[in-house]
Write the structure tokens for this entry.
Amino acid sequence: MSYALGLRCLRCDQRYGLGMMFEGCPKCADPDIVSNLVVEYDYEKIRNVLSREVVSRRPSRLGVWRYRELLPVSDERHALSLGEGSTALLHSTSVGRKIGLRNLYLKDESRNPTWSFKDRFSAVAISKGLEFGVKTTAAASTGNLGASVAAYSAKAGVPSIILTIPTVPFTMLGLMRAYGAKVVAVTTPAGRWELMSKGVREYGWYPAGTYTTPPTGNPYGLQGYKTIGYELVEQLGWRSPDYIIQPTANGAGLFGEWRGIKEFYDLGMVDSLPVMVAAEPEAGGPLYRSTLEPRETIARVQTKKSVAFSIAGSVTSYQALRAVKDSKGYSVLVSEEEILEAQSLIASCEGVLAEASSAASVAAAKKMREEGRVDADAVVVCVLTSSGLKDLENRREQLANIPTVEPRWEELQRVLQTYYA
Ligand SMILES: *Cc1c(COP(=O)(O)O)cnc(C)c1O
Ligand SMILES: [Zn+2]
């Protein structure tokens, strides 16, 4: 059962009921900042029912619902599952040696049902939508969120509308359509959010993502991201990593992971807290920019085309800023080359093919080590948010040139030497 009590503003502490609030806190909103709302729980009661032992005994097939007390879905009949969560944490010895980190771990979120960590969000967001009795779900997405929302809406038997970008990668589009979403490409990012807003306000669409600037989003779905934090703590033997490096767009994942570990800390289930590090592409970097401002504000940046298209956003969220500030963390900007190099490194040394956006976390880890911001012994977790099968398109030219031979040994030998040295 759920012990959710209500929503609370992260900035002014105003409390609200567990209602359909998707546009942040109306009380303290100003032109620079609109704060996110977070779900609050009855932690006193949870303390009596949840412990390390209780959690450990629950089977991993329950996925995100292993932590149902700390999720906002009250009726278990509404708890949708496609087998999300309980993903592997890999000790990355080869990449670790190359970049000088003895305790580098990869949290492989590509093992989720639609091959990205967005499934943790969608599982909880759409389940909560069922509880609200919604008739249509909607999301504005460049790919992974749309694919995930489409899949969980299909499972829920609710139609979904996905507003995407005209350049949406073919694989992402293919997934969304296969799951039955009504997909429409909208020519501008601002336009996508405006249309979403009208659909939500006037036509009862249930937003499974964000559509306001600065981004506030669905506070229930965000709760699903906490489970990455819970899992990490347990997988590391009931200790927190020293650093979590999270590829960041709006910062929902970053904040969710922080919030999850903070809850375990407050419940006495773990003794320390991680430093939260955002990995952002140089092509965007709104959180990085916001952290440079002396006063609390949410900066906007111009974006460029990036291989990390899932995280090259122009604006961050208040909750992302809070995760970084409250954990004494920061944002690391990485270049296009650094991202692609990290993607190849993880695949060729560890056998894990991550989306370029996801590999930004490993690129950031390398940079942090080079700049002496992290010790060689620190426990560093890089979250690999999605699968490299989503963006193989990036490598089309490279892959088009593989050598072809007549079936003769000498020819094979020749190309192995000339082409692959
Ligand atoms: C959505 C996404 C992210 C991060 O999104 P946040 O809004 O910052 O949580 C990171 N990587 C990939 C591959 C994504 O699809
Ligand atoms: Zn407020």
User: Anything to note?
Assistant: The mean pLDDT is 96.
